[in-house]
């Protein structure tokens, strides 16, 4: 018995495969984070609203949300080499399309092609990590995975800010394309893994339900920013999305070999980790999408300085990732989640108090402390949930996790930008009504224009504050759920 146990503690890791997969994941994450700082510049170049430009992030996550459910089948059916080369080829192609985009629609198309590659990469890497390490060592292993995931966001905003300040935004894609191509070549010549193809075929009806389900919900949330919640298209999209998702779940329980096995939710700790991850991702995207708009459009801070402001927080997450992995192995996820979410809620609440006079130093400290809190929650909660699953459910667990990350991020981003847009209009009407006498008393057209601009900026800030406040309430839900976390034990049975 002891010999068997000792053997299971030794990770059987194909380090060469892991390195290549991590390089691909790094470049995909770098590409995603590079674009956030560039959104205000793209808004001006293509003359689109905040609710429209956020589709570059939401559309990316939308494609991920649609395709990730298929990865459980793909991981079982094909080797890591086959999947990774396909993913990098799609990602590189999408990067080139986006770089040469002459219109917003082509840019969005390029981002979606990019996403089709990234959708395969992240679950594939996570699955290889989980199958390479035993449950009692996964905290440290996933901490290393988290370090790679966070290093890209750490340098992304600052690098993006410098490029936007000195070049045009297409350079973001032209810089990534050769790196992605080199990783693709490395994979072609150096990535080797042995795996027999398993029998089976993907269920087309499940793919259709998945596409309309996730697509309908995300499109509905995203469109509400421009069209309003009462718009027929928004309501129809949400209804179709909900019905399709219910049909997807029903379909999976009817199949002998489901595309996405929802039996993973019968394990309480995995189900709980899903709830916490969903709400935390929604809250996290508030700062990622709203901060560049506040910093550049309202405060007039340069893209480079905007990126530098976000850099310390991302570095904190990078440093903390392997540390929280080790702390998780020792103490479990509950105490880390409670402390981390408490910090996240308090700092998010203070972000709901932004003004035209909030100092640069205050913003750096708030953002960095908030990222510190989030770093204590993400990987420990996710790892604890996956540890609760038998080995045969690991591909489905990683696929569900990745789907939840993308869908919750897209819904959170869309919802919060919609709240910001709608509340800004409401605050604008109130502020203009209050300032009616001042507007009438303006002595020159220049003074009138300046006063209108000031009122508009104040209204936008109030809209951003409202979105942050909603984000704080969402994080409270995750905090309540975290009190029920228990250390997951490796199941003795796969039934």
Automatic annotation (TrEMBL):
One of its GO terms (cellular component) is plasma membrane. Gene3D superfamilies: MFS general substrate transporter like domains, Multidrug resistance protein D. The keyword Transport applies. It is found in: Cell membrane. Coiled coil: none annotated. Its main location: membrane. PROSITE patterns: MFS. It is a multi-pass membrane protein. Keywords: Cell membrane, Membrane, Transmembrane, Transmembrane helix, Transport. InterPro entries: EmrB-like, MFS, MFS_dom, MFS_trans_sf. Belongs to the major facilitator superfamily. EmrB family. This is MFS transporter. It comes from Brochothrix thermosphacta (Microbacterium thermosphactum).
């Amino acid at each position: 018995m002891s010999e068997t146990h000792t053997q299971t503690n030794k990770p059987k890791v194909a380090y060469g495969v892991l390195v290549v997969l991590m390089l691909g994941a790094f470049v995909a994450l770098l590409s995603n984070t590079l674009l956030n700082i560039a959104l205000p510049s793209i808004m001006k170049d293509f003359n689109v609203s905040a609710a429209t430009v956020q589709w570059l992030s939401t559309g990316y996550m939308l494609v991920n949300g649609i395709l990730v459910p298929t990865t459980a089948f793909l991981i079982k059916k094909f080797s890591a080499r086959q999947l990774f080369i396909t993913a990098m080829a799609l990602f590189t192609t999408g990067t080139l399309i986006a770089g040469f985009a002459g219109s917003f629609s082509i840019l969005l198309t390029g981002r979606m092609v990019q996403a089709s590659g990234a959708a395969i990469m992240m679950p594939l890497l996570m699955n290889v990590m989980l199958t390479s390490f035993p449950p009692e060592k996964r905290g440290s292993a996933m901490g290393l995975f988290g370090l790679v995931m966070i290093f890209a966001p750490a340098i992304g905003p600052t690098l993006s800010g410098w490029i936007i300040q000195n070049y045009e935004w297409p350079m973001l894609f032209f810089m990534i394309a050769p790196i992605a191509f080199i990783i693709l070549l490395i994979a072609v010549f150096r990535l080797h893994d042995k795996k027999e193809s398993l029998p089976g075929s993907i269920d087309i009806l499940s793919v259709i339900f998945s596409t309309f389900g996730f697509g309908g919900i995300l499109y509905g949330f995203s469109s509400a920013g421009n069209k309003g919640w009462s718009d027929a298209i928004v309501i129809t999209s949400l209804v179709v999305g909900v019905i399709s998702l219910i049909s997807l779940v029903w379909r999976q329980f009817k199949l002998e070999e489901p595309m996405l096995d929802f039996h993973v939710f019968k394990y309480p700790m995995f189900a709980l980790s899903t709830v916490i991850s969903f709400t935390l991702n929604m809250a996290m995207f508030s700062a990622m999408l709203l901060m560049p708009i506040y910093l550049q459009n309202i405060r007039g801070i340069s893209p480079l300085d905007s990126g530098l402001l976000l850099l310390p927080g991302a570095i904190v997450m990078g440093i903390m990732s392997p540390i929280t992995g080790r702390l998780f192995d020792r103490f479990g996820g509950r105490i880390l989640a409670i402390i981390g979410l408490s910090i996240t809620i308090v700092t998010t609440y203070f972000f709901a108090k932004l003004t035209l006079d909030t100092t640069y130093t205050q913003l750096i400290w708030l953002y960095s402390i908030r990222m510190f809190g989030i770093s204590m929650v993400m990987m420990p909660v996710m790892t604890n949930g996956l540890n609760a699953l038998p080995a045969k459910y690991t591909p489905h667990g990683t696929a569900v996790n990745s789907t939840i990350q993308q869908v919750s991020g897209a819904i959170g981003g869309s919802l919060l930008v919609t709240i910001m847009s709608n509340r800004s209009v409401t605050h604008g009407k109130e502020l203009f009504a209050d300032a009616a006498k001042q507007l009438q008393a303006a002595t020159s057209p220049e003074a009138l224009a300046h006063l209108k601009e000031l009122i508009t900026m104040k209204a936008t800030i109030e809209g951003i504050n409202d979105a942050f406040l909603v984000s704080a309430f969402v994080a409270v839900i995750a905090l309540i759920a975290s009190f029920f976390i228990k250390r997951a034990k490796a199941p003795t049975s796969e039934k």
